[in-house]
Each structure stands twice: as structure tokens, then as C-alpha cells.
Design brief:
By secondary structure, the protein is mostly helical. The protein is built from 6 helices and 5 strands, in the order αβββαβαβααα. Helix 1 packs across helix 4.
Length: about 180
């Protein structure tokens, strides 16, 4: 019973994180989980930014994703998977894909940049008027001015010489990654 709770807790954490990311980036995400309460695929949650699908008991998430990619050839899709077979289907349909660890790093960078972003009308005020706290107050005041860069520029899809041109597949991937 504890394992089921833990799995559900992790699933909710993932959905919460991806929803925050999609809202920030104004992207639409489709998240597919194995199983679910029904025999066939069903949407369990849908809002402006994220759609949660359970593949159902008669189909697994891999099969659902393969079918979704084939059915949505004309739509702009970036597949996030570590599964080679699903990535191959996406490649055959001219859809770029990235690994889940790479995508997780992009999400974390975007969300941490959002958390570090200083509000424009933020004011710094002292909570203590004691003279022994003046040094700490001045350090905190200086630290508040130091912000990390808002956008991470360390995304590398392929390392090529400048004289070489990117393939059509790499161009699509770069275009989608810029949106992320």
C-alpha cells in the first residue's frame, strides 16, 4: 500500500512541476502514464497547459505514444523519451526527440530561473534595528542585487563545425528547443 501511495505522490509531484513549466513557457504538454482505471486510453486531467493520459489496461504508454506520433504528423511535437523504439517512430515521422534527463534539466533551469527572478517592485527592509546586525544587513542587501542569468544558454544538440550545416531534423530540434 505504501508503494502505491509513493508512486501516486511522485506522479502528482511530476504533474505539478510540468504544469508550472508549461505555464511559464506557454507550451502545451501531453503526459502519458501506463495503466489507469479503464481498459482504453482516457484523459484524466486537462487544463490550458497540460493533458494527462492513462494508456489503459489494454495498451501500454509506448503503444499510445507511437500511435499519437503517427496520427499527429502535421502537428509540432517534441518527444521526450529514453525509449529507442519510440524515438525511432518519431524520427520516421520527422519529429525530433530528446532524452528525459535532458528535458528534466531544461525544466529545472527554467523553474529555478523563475524562482530567482527578482520582482521589479521588491523592497528590502530591515527586520532588526540592532547595531550588531548591521553587517549581516549590508551583506544581505548586496546579495539581493546578485541574480543568476535568467536564461540558460548551455543547450547543445549537436557539436558541429561552423562550416557544416544542420540537418533538417537537427533544425527542427533546435527550433523546438528554443521554445523550451
Amino acid at each position: 500500500m505504501a508503494e502505491i501511495y509513493n508512486l501516486e505522490h511522485q506522479r502528482m509531484w511530476l504533474i505539478k512541476m510540468l504544469t508550472a513549466y508549461a505555464r511559464k513557457k506557454k507550451n502545451n504538454l501531453l503526459v502519458v502514464f501506463d495503466g489507469g482505471p479503464f481498459y482504453w486510453p482516457s484523459e484524466q486531467e486537462k487544463n490550458k497547459y497540460i493533458t494527462i493520459v492513462f494508456s489503459g489496461q489494454k495498451m501500454n504508454a509506448d503503444e499510445y505514444l507511437k500511435g499519437y506520433i503517427i496520427e499527429n504528423k502535421i502537428n509540432e511535437i517534441l518527444l521526450v523519451t529514453d525509449d529507442r523504439q519510440i524515438a525511432d517512430v518519431a524520427h520516421e515521422c520527422s519529429k525530433p526527440s530528446i532524452g528525459s534527463k535532458h528535458f528534466y534539466n531544461l525544466v529545472q533551469d527554467a523553474l529555478s530561473a523563475q524562482a530567482l527572478k527578482k520582482p521589479e517592485n521588491a523592497q528590502i527592509s530591515k527586520l532588526s534595528g540592532k547595531p550588531e546586525h548591521e553587517m549581516i544587513d549590508s551583506l544581505m542587501h548586496e546579495a539581493a542585487k546578485m541574480l543568476t542569468p535568467e536564461k540558460s544558454e548551455d543547450v547543445h544538440v549537436a557539436t558541429r563545425k561552423r562550416t557544416q550545416k544542420l540537418s533538417r531534423h537537427d533544425k527542427k530540434l533546435m527550433k523546438l528547443l528554443k521554445k523550451l
